[in-house]
Amino acid sequence: VNELIWDYDSLDSLNKPVLVVAFKGLFDASGSATSALEWLMEKSESENLGEIDSETFFDFTQERPLISFDKNGERALTWPKNKIVAIRTSGNERDLLAISGIEPH
Asked: Which Pfam families does this UniProt record tie to the protein (predicted)?
């Protein structure tokens, strides 16, 4: 099993990246950490580099997958996952490498 699925080559183009991590859960303070990171990703040049496989890191009795229906009435199953994103900050000294999602169990 490959727990980390990502694009290594994109890291070379980052300018002295700083790792920023925000997980939903106990330490998210009403969603402030994850909301701030989502805002940064929306307002900056960001690139999705990959994700962390949920099978190894989540207790699915604590964090359930979501079942939804698309506009055609087809059922869809969405598993919890953590994403890895590069955030390029033009005009700043350093770029960001962000990990966000569900707190691992």
From this structure: PAC2
